[in-house]
From TrEMBL:
Residues 401-469 form the Secretion system C-terminal sorting domain. Belongs to the glycosyl hydrolase 8 (cellulase D) family. It comes from Flavobacterium jejuense. Residues 1-24 form the signal peptide. It holds the Pfam family Por_Secre_tail. This is cellulase. NCBIfam families: Por_Secre_tail (TIGR04183).
Length: 470
């Protein structure tokens, strides 16, 4: 009898594990989303993104001991926290868990007393550049949120808990107190010195939803746009050509003397700004982000005469300051073209980026791969990081969930013979059912009020929706 009971328990456990693997909030690569906001290139292909990823991983990922991985910098014997952030974004969206976990453990091994990674490390150990660089923390925190969506947080790494801790550290040490100005590091900067290319308003909105702190993080997002627009206005900038560094007033900073050109040109820092800002538009539909990204796209399309004429640096008045045509600049402007309202220009920009071949350039090739993930719909907002969006769709499945919010029951409109799975924000399966009609009523009256996620699968298509139960 004991043996029979044990077998029954093992069988039940196996069924539960199997069911959870089906219903888990996981998005294998490629997601190939079509964003609700902006244009998508008609010639986009996840094959291009995969090819870039494979080159990036071969050329820049190195294994350390104890399951750690690092990203090789311009000097291959060094690693910078920025590279770890980029690497964690790429590996989590690629669903490459082993490498992702190794990068995160490397980050944790090299943190300072504020809980952020020292910005430069010699090989697999030993800080040679002390204290944090905020853009790294921002990317890492977003990657951990996606990891919580991809793999859940009940395994060896609690991605959700780690994300919450890191977001709290960013709030405490890398956002200036009382001003909402993003500091460029945990130990310096603020209103007197900031870096517009670090601003990631889409991430901030995700942090707010993820940690139930939206008022604070929405204020940081708003301040980012205030600083960017002030910088453009004060310096009579053409298009969206922000300076590499500035004060929160938008004026140039006398604390930027140690940076290239005193931080006063649109070069290798500022070049990332169009990518970071357009994400706020394609993820959240933010109109301020759209306006800025369109300015960037129109600068290339109108002022430069097309993507083929992009060079690696400009004065803010639009005059040329660089000489090379590379992925750092081409790809960010290509992402901006998603908000540019010109399909032909976006398609040409996508092709231009695809054809650039810089496999041994850490910065250019890493950013090329990230840009391609966004352009192909593989750099997305996971449903565990939004309270303002009602939809997260994959592979083109059209469904509706209403009313939303709901007082306890709601309707899922989906194709006949779909499967419906409802989970809470911690990944716990609440219920599942198969549809026999075009609309199905889901009874949640016995569940606690809060946010839930609904996964609908029909053949090889799937969609996710969030539902709020009052």
């Amino acid at each position: 009898m004991k043996l029979l009971l044990q077998l029954k328990r093992i069988s039940a456990l196996a069924i539960a594990i199997s069911f959870n693997s089906i219903c888990a909030q996981t998005q294998p690569f490629p997601a190939n989303l079509t964003f609700s906001n902006g244009l998508m290139a008609t010639n986009k292909s996840d094959v291009d993104a995969t090819a870039s990823y494979d080159i990036w991983k071969t050329n820049f990922i190195e294994s350390c001991s104890n399951g750690r991985y690092r990203v090789k910098f311009d000097n291959p014997s060094e690693t910078v926290s920025e590279g770890i952030g980029y690497g964690m974004l790429l590996t989590v969206y690629k669903a490459d868990k082993v490498t992702f976990d190794g990068l995160w453990n490397y980050y944790k091994d090299n943190r300072n007393s504020n809980g952020v990674m020292n910005w430069k490390i010699s090989g697999c150990s030993g800080a040679i550049g002390q204290n944090g660089a905020t853009d790294a923390e921002l990317d890492v925190a977003m990657a951990l949120i996606v990891a919580d969506y991809q793999w859940g947080s009940t395994g060896t790494i609690n991605y959700r808990g780690d994300a919450e801790i890191l977001i709290a550290a960013i709030k405490a040490h890398e956002v200036e107190a009382n001003t909402y100005v993003l500091k460029p590091g945990d130990m310096f900067g603020g209103s007197s010195l900031t870096n517009p290319s670090y601003f990631a308003p889409a991430y901030y909105r995700a942090y707010g939803a993820f940690t139930n702190d939206s008022a604070f993080w929405n204020a940081v997002a708003a301040k980012s746009y205030t600083v960017i627009n002030a910088n453009l206005t004060q310096n009579n900038a053409v298009g969206g050509l922000v300076s590499d560094w500035c004060q929160s007033s938008g004026a140039y900073s006398n604390e930027a003397g140690g940076y290239a050109n005193g931080g006063q040109k649109y070069t290798y820092d500022a070049a990332r700004t169009p990518w970071r800002i357009v994400v706020d538009y394609v993820w959240f539909g933010d109109n301020t982000g759209k306006v800025y990204a369109k300015k960037c796209s129109d600068f290339v399309r109108v002022n430069l005469g097309g993507t083929a004429n992009i060079k690696d640096g400009y004065n803010q008045d639009g005059t040329l300051a660089g000489q090379w045509h590379n992925a750092t600049f081409v790809g960010a402007f290509a992402c901006a073209a998603m908000a540019g309202e010109d399909q032909t220009h976006l398609d040409a920009s996508y092709t231009d980026l695809k054809n650039l071949n810089e496999p041994n350039s850490y910065f250019n090739h890493t950013l090329k791969t990230i840009y391609q993930f966004l352009l192909t719909g593989n750099f997305y907002l996971p449903p565990n990081a939004t309270l303002s969006n009602d939809t997260f769709a994959a592979n083109g499945l059209e469904v509706s969930v209403y009313p939303n919010p709901s007082n306890g029951s709601f309707i899922v409109a989906a194709p006949i013979a779909s499967s419906i799975c409802v989970v809470d924000v911690h990944g716990k399966v609440i219920l599942e059912k198969n549809t026999s009609d075009l609309s199905s009523t889901i009874d949640m009256n016995a569940q606690a009020p809060g946010l839930y996620l609904v996964k609908i699968v029909n053949e090889d298509k799937q969609a996710f929706r969030k539902i709020v139960i009052n």
